Each structure stands twice: as C-alpha cells, then as structure tokens.
C-alpha cells in the first residue's frame, strides 16, 4: 500500500459543519442537515465518491428517512451527476461487451481499478461466462476493504469463479493483483486526483497494459448548466473541501496527448454528461 491513510471517497475534510463554520458558510448548515435525512444525500455529504455512494446511484431507488428524505433522494437520483454516473456505467458496459465480443474471451485479462462493489464488473463477467467463447480472467481492486468484501460476496453468490476482488491503491502498481492486463477500467477516480497524481495513475495503467491493450476510462463533464445546478456544484465543492479540475473534450484530449497512449478515442455518454475515453498502448 502507499503511505498515508487510504480512503475510498473524494471528500478531504473531516467535519463538514466545522468546515462551514470556519469559512463563514453558516447558511449551508441547513442544507447539510436536510441532506442527512436522505440516504443518498447522507452518503454524498459524508463520503462522496465512496463505493456505497456509487452503488446507491446505480441502484436508483429512494431510501431516505421519512417522506422528505425519500423526496430528496429522488431529487438527487435525478440530478445530472447521478444520471451521469449511470450513463457512464451503461457506456462502459456497452463498450466492454463490444471489445470482448471481438476477441477470444478465454484469453482476456480485465483489471478494474476502483471497482467499488463490482456491480458492472460482475454483470459483464456473468454475461460473457454464459456465452460459448470462453470465460474472462477478471480482477477488481478498490481502496475500501468493505467494498472488496461486498463485491466478493456478490460474485460468490452468482458462482463466478473467474473474478477476484482485492484491496489496494491505484497509485501503487505493487498493489495491482496482476502484472499485465488486456483491458484496464478506470471510472470515477482520476478526475478527483491532483493533476500530477492523475498523470501518474494513467502512466501506471499504461505500464500494466499488454502491448495493444486498452484503457477504458471517463472524465465527468461540467454538468452545471443553469443557476440551480451551479449553486449545487458550489455546495458540493464546499462539502468536498476541494475544487475539481473540470476539463472539456479538447482539454481531455490534450491531456492524453502528453501520455504514451495511442489511438485515443473520445465520445460522450448519454445526455453528454460524461466523456468516455478509450486509449491503446
């Protein structure tokens, strides 16, 4: 593991109420406490970026406390960030299905860095295992040991013996469960890293890929298009304690031009909320 405390979340402050008070943002305290009544909102403000948060978004069912909590849950599940996460999952699944179908699946090794509860990875593995062209060798890795345990239990319930989940730090190649892979999936992680760490992560992925292998990743678009959304974006960054590096399509492509990948292809997922990237070694 890399040095330092490893957490599977993007928030970088310990106490949100104290953080808001210190910065004179008292008016945001009611928003914080109202969000705590929502199951998704509570996970959003406490552990944004966690495996639990992502899984709640993918599940897409309101689970808040009382009526107001469920209403707020439904509002958040329909927000651009949540819809973008689901469209990213769908785009990832569709692209992987196409890539695997074009090859002999029994010879492919797939590595998912930051796999969370493994919802997408398990669905892909189950789908390919049911075909006649063999089985994949699939590995998922996440910082969150609880996420790894949950993903492993889900895979076991479905009888998927060819998928393995381990805990580790994506910035430390020594933690990777395999030394080489045909496809590396990297979703919902790189954008939250400082630029130097982000570029290091991309280079780590390039190093672990086999020749002609692929990185399938994403970069979230700047979804705040009206005043309400811009207000929520500002609040979320207050709760995170960090300003995110929002890049457009041209800027993402320019960033990848600095990396050793080739044949970099970019396209927008449904609703143009998330930019998908497929880059070859």
The CATH superfamily label of the largest domain reads Vaccinia Virus protein VP39
**What CATH architecture of the largest domain would you give?**
3-Layer(aba) Sandwich
Shape: globular
CATH topology of the largest domain: Rossmann fold
The share of residues in extended strands comes to 15-25%
Q: Return the string of H and E elements.
A: HHHHHHEHEHEEHEHHEE
User: What would the average pLDDT be, to the nearest integer?
Assistant: 86
Radius of gyration: 19 Å
Note the main sheet. Answer: 7 strands, mixed
Q: Order of strands across the biggest sheet?
A: 3-2-1-4-5-7-6
Structural class: alpha/beta
Name the poorly predicted regions: 1-9
In CATH, what is the class of the largest domain? Answer: Alpha Beta
Helix content: 40-55%
List the helices and strands and how they pair.
Elements: H1 16-22, H2 29-35, H3 39-47, H4 51-59, H5 66-77, H6 80-101, E1 109-113, H7 119-129, E2 137-142, H8 145-157, E3 163-167, E4 181-186, H9 195-208, E5 209-220, H10 227-240, H11 249-257, E6 262-268, E7 274-280
Parallel strand pairs: 1-2, 1-4, 2-3, 4-5
Antiparallel strand pairs: 5-7, 6-7
Helix pairs in contact: 3-4, 6-7
Describe the structure.
45% of the residues lie in helices and 17% in strands. With 281 residues, it is an alpha/beta fold. The chain has two domains: 63 residues, no CATH class; 177 residues, Rossmann fold, CATH 3.40.50. The protein has a seven-stranded mixed beta sheet with strand order 3-2-1-4-5-7-6, sandwiched between helices. A hairpin with a 5-residue loop joins strand 6 and strand 7.
């Amino acid at each position: 593991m890399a040095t330092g405390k490893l957490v599977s979340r993007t928030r970088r402050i310990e106490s949100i109420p104290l953080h808001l008070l210190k910065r004179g943002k008292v008016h945001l305290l009611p928003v914080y406490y109202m969000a705590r009544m929502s199951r998704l909102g509570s996970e959003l403000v406490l552990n944004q970026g966690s495996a639990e948060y992502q899984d709640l978004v993918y599940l897409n069912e309101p689970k808040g406390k009382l009526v107001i909590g469920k209403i707020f849950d439904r509002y958040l599940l329909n927000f651009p960030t949540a819809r973008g996460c689901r469209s990213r999952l769908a785009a990832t699944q569709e692209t992987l299905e196409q890539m695997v179908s074009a090859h002999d699946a029994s010879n492919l090794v797939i590595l998912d860095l930051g796999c969370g509860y493994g919802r997408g990875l398990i669905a892909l593995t189950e789908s390919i295992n049911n075909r006649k062209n063999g089985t994949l060798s699939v590995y998922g890795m996440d910082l969150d040991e609880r996420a790894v345990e949950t993903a492993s239990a889900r895979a076991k319930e479905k009888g998927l013996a060819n998928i393995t989940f381990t805990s580790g730090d994506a910035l430390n190649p020594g933690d990777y469960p395999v030394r080489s892979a045909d496809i590396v999936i990297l979703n919902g992680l790189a954008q939250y890293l400082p630029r130097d760490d982000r570029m290091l992560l991309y280079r780590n992925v390039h190093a672990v890929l086999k020749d002609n292998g692929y990185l399938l990743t994403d970069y979230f678009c700047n979804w705040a298009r009206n005043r309400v959304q811009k207000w929520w974006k500002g609040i979320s960054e207050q709760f995170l304690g960090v300003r995110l590096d929002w890049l457009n399509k041209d800027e993402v492509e320019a960033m990848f031009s600095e990396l050793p990948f080739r044949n970099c292809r970019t396209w927008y997922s449904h609703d143009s909320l998330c930019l998908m990237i497929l880059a070859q070694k």
